[in-house]
Amino acid sequence: MCIGNRFAIMETKVLLFHLLARCDLKTCEKTRLPLKIAKDGFNLKPEGGFWLNISPRKNIHHSIATNAVNGTRQLTPLPLFGNTIKLFFRRETILDYINNIYKLHPDAKYVGMFEMTIPILVLRDPELIKSIASKNFDLFPHHRSFVEEDQDPLFGKNLFALKGERWRQVRPLLSPAFTSSKMKSKMERTPIS
């Protein structure tokens, strides 16, 4: 294969990457929907062609989470790295990183961040945390876990690591052990030094 051909293919991939990262592609009126495959050639192609409109995105991290949570205070994310570029290049420790995100807006009940391309909400308000953890826990079964159940059977079956339906099954089993009266009795027996 010619070196010029390889270079052209690589440039095409880079151009396509930047186009998809920064623009929304939508079919226009010229494209016939549903698509019908043309029978006049060897290659599969739609009849009349496949026409697209290209429009630039307002935010490179175009996601449902950022559109759904309008007004979330957050650091401006970088493409691919989000807010973790200092961690990635070891310019900041994980403790400093978490502390800086937490202290980003002291008056906010929650702040937003991007870990690579994944949007994350960091809760700051104790009342909001209490509401989610005790009263509205059924609305938040899909939380972030650090260890998967199949990777580490001991820590993966912990309530904090479980997600979805498995979390829903285990949560009611453990709730009676953490009632306020049982917690008070445990604290009374625990010596504080």
Automatic annotation (TrEMBL):
It is a peripheral membrane protein. It is found in: Endoplasmic reticulum membrane; Microsome membrane. The keyword Signal applies. Its cofactor is heme. GO terms for cellular component: endoplasmic reticulum membrane. Its main location: endoplasmic reticulum. Pfam families: p450. This is Cytochrome P450 9e2.
